[in-house]
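Deliverable D4.2, example record:
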Amino acid sequence: MLAKTVCFAALVASAAAYAPTMSLSANRRQVIAGAGAAVVAAPLASNAAIKKDQKAPIITIFDNRGCEVKKNNYSGAKANGMEDDQCVKLTMETITVSETTAAKKLQEFIGLKATAINVPQISGVTKKY
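Output generated by the structure prediction step:
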């Protein structure tokens, strides 16, 4: 049933994307933003269980432009450009969050905390009548 719903939503979205009147009301950026929102919302609509060992991509960017230290960690051909001193490292790691941080965020999200985490409070809590 879920697969049929997702297919139907994709069909409707593609029909709306190529409608002749769309060029009058929306631009490409709005269409892509809507498609991105649909992609994000699709797993939320399903009953997929969250696994404890799911991994997330960690991207590290190394930029050695202007560094005077001799670089001997790369032995391949040079591109003779600024990318010779740059590197991107991608690893998949399990993200862990402590229970106290999760509890603080939960309190912030459900509105029991007057200010956000790590934000100094300027005045007292406003009384609600």
